[in-house]
Every structure is written in structure tokens, then in C-alpha cells.
Recover the amino acids of this structure.
């Protein structure tokens, strides 16, 4: 498939996936969960409103390439401080336009997410296919090691509810998005962010009121040592997991995970909360899923995906722990599921 680079020469190899969001491309690009992937957007016009410093979800771009139908290079939004092309060039990420991204999406849906390479330098089809096949893929690999913080740090709040009770939360950084930290802070939490492999004993020594397990990239089974740490924390403090954190919690319960055919990525995934009967439209970005049939009886399924019936949320029947597969912090996407942060606050109050 041929296209045109709008960022200059370059090439990238990774797992090719699609995202169905109509906006929020800057948040997509700065989501660490996309590490190791080539992202194509199904919405045809990308770049319309530029980029700005306020919409960052991490300090860098994580997909290895960004593939669009038509790049819009003249931002029309007053908040824009740079073009999308300039933003991609700053992090040396290849941007390609002119692709039939909807046909590409149909191929991915039919055949599944697959290894791919995009290049402005090597234009030999057989060579490109060979190089894509030689790439090791994501299954079984520890992608978290490349995105987690190297040292613990305290999140500095931009806004806080002055009337809210203060909680101390330790957040495991598996590839954390900043809006998760913003929403915790806004609810009165003092958040200490720690590396993915931080021992449970060090976390408990911080005397937290609750423990947060963030999103992150790749295969949860490939993240060495983390499951054992989380298992050691169960029952000690309230635990809330999101995305990869949800999958790791599933493994800590004794369950297993599997790779979805093409994953869930976008801001329009319908999920039903089985505890309330409410249906919410959610933002999602994941290629792996917890197998509900592998979970022990003390784990209750709380949310399901209405498109394919896959598990989207669970909670422990006896211990203060719950998690969801999707992104209740939105950014980008609908705000329907932000209430889950309030559930975490309630759980910490009950346990306190």
C-alpha cells in the first residue's frame, strides 16, 4: 500500500492497529499503551486543530508511526501551538498520508492486528514483508520496561477539591496517562507514582490509603515480577486497576489473558455495568483481555463489552479490589465512566 510521508524520510516496524476516534489524536499519540505499534486512524481528516502542551498524556510520542488518510496542515483551533507534522518530527516519528485507511482497517479486522513495516527508504515489497515477519512482535515481550518511570515522583496537582478528604495513593506506572493522575488529584489524592517493578514492601512502607494500577502497553504476561507484587498487595489496601493494570490484577487473581483478534481502540466502545444495568460509551486501547472462564469464583464480572461480549470489568467479592479494561479517565473520549474514580474514593473511605 502506497502513501506519502508528511514528516520527511523515515521507517518503522511494529504491530499495525486502528483507532476509531474522530478527535483526540494528540492524546492517542502520547498514550504509552501504543508503544511498539503503528497506528492508523479511521477518521479521514487528521491534524485539523494542531497540537498544544495542555493535551499531552505523557512526555513523548509512543507509536512508531502514524498513518492517516488526509493530513490537515493548517490548524484552525486557537489552542494550537504547533502543527501535527511538527509534533511528530520533534519526536522523530514517521507520519504518512494518502493511505486508504478504511480499507486498511477492514484488512486488520478480517486478518487481525499483524506485524507491519512502513518506509520511505526501502520500497522493495519482498524486502519489507521479510523485515516485518522478522520483527518479534508483542506477545510475551515486556513493553512496560520501556515506558515506566525510572524513579518515583509525586504528581503535582493542577486543581484540587479543597473540601475533599485527602487520600494518599500509590500509582504503579505501567505506562500511566496523565489524566488518570489529574482525576485522582482533583478528588483530593496525594499521588506518589512508582516504577512498575517496585516491590510490594516498598509500596506498603509509604502507608497509602489506596493502590492504583495504571494502563500500559503490550502483553501483561510478559511483564516480569509485577504480578507477584500485586498479589502481595491484595487485601492489604484498596486496589483500582485500569487497562493493563486490570489485566495484571486478573493474573494476580489466578486467571489468564489472551490476545484479541484486532483489539479495542477508540472512543466509542459500548460497555454494560452489570452492577447497575447502565450502558456507557467508553474510551479503549488494548489488544489483550482477561479470560472470564479462568477466574476463580471469588471474582465477579462487573462489566462486559456489548460488541463482542468480552470482559471489561471485575471485582473481588471479599477483598477491596476492582478494575476495568477500558479508560475511565477518557482523554480522549466520553466521560461516561469517570464515576469509577469516585468508586475508588468510596472504597478508600470504607476501608479507612
Amino acid at each position: 500500500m502506497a502513501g506519502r510521508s508528511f514528516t520527511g524520510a523515515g521507517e518503522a516496524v511494529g504491530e499495525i492497529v486502528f483507532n476509531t476516534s474522530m478527535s483526540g489524536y494528540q492524546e492517542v499519540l502520547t498514550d504509552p499503551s501504543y508503544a511498539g505499534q503503528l497506528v492508523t486512524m479511521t477518521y479521514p481528516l487528521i491534524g485539523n486543530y494542531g497540537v498544544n502542551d495542555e493535551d499531552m498524556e505523557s512526555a513523548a510520542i509512543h507509536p512508531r508511526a502514524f498513518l492517516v488518510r488526509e493530513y490537515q496542515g493548517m490548524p484552525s483551533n486557537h489552542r494550537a501551538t504547533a502543527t501535527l507534522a511538527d509534533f511528530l518530527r520533534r519526536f522523530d516519528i514517521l507520519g504518512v498520508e494518502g493511505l486508504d485507511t478504511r480499507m486498511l482497517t477492514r484488512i486488520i479486522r478480517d486478518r487481525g492486528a499483524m506485524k507491519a513495516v512502513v518506509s520511505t527508504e526501502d520500497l522493495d515489497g519482498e524486502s519489507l514483508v521479510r523485515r516485518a515477519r522478522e520483527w518479534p512482535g508483542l506477545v510475551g515481550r515486556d513493553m512496560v520496561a520501556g515506558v515506566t518511570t525510572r524513579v518515583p515522583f509525586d504528581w503535582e496537582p493542577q486543581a484540587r477539591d479543597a473540601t475533599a478528604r485527602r487520600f494518599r495513593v500509590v500509582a504503579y506506572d505501567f505506562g500511566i496517562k496523565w489524566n488518570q493522575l489529574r482525576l485522582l488529584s482533583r478528588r483530593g489524592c496525594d499521588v506518589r507514582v512508582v516504577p512498575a517493578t517496585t516491590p510490594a514492601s516498598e509500596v506498603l512502607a509509604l502507608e497509602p490509603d489506596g493502590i492504583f494500577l495504571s494502563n500500559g502497553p503490550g502483553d501483561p504476561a510478559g511483564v516480569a515480577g509485577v504480578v507477584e507484587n500485586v498479589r502481595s498487595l491484595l487485601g492489604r489496601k484498596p486496589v483500582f486497576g485500569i487497562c493493563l493494570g486490570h489485566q495484571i490484577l486478573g493474573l494476580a487473581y489466578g486467571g489468564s489473558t489472551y490476545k484479541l483478534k484486532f483489539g479495542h481502540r477508540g472512543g466509542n466502545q459500548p460497555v454494560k455495568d452489570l452492577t447497575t444495568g447502565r450502558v456507557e460509551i467508553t474510551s479503549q486501547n488494548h489488544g489483550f483481555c482477561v479470560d472470564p472462564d479462568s477466574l476463580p469464583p471469588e471474582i465477579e464480572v462487573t462489566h462486559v463489552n456489548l460488541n463482542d461480549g468480552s470482559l471489561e470489568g471485575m471485582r473481588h467479592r471479599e477483598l477491596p479490589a476492582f478494575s476495568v479494561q477500558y479508560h475511565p479517565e477518557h482523554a480522549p473520549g466520553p466521560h461516561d465512566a469517570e464515576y469509577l474514580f469516585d468508586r475508588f474514593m468510596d472504597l478508600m473511605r470504607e476501608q479507612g
The chain has two domains: 4-134, 144-351. Residues 339-351 form the longest helix (13 residues). Residues 72 and 304 are 37 Å apart (CA to CA). The two ends are 57 Å apart (CA to CA).
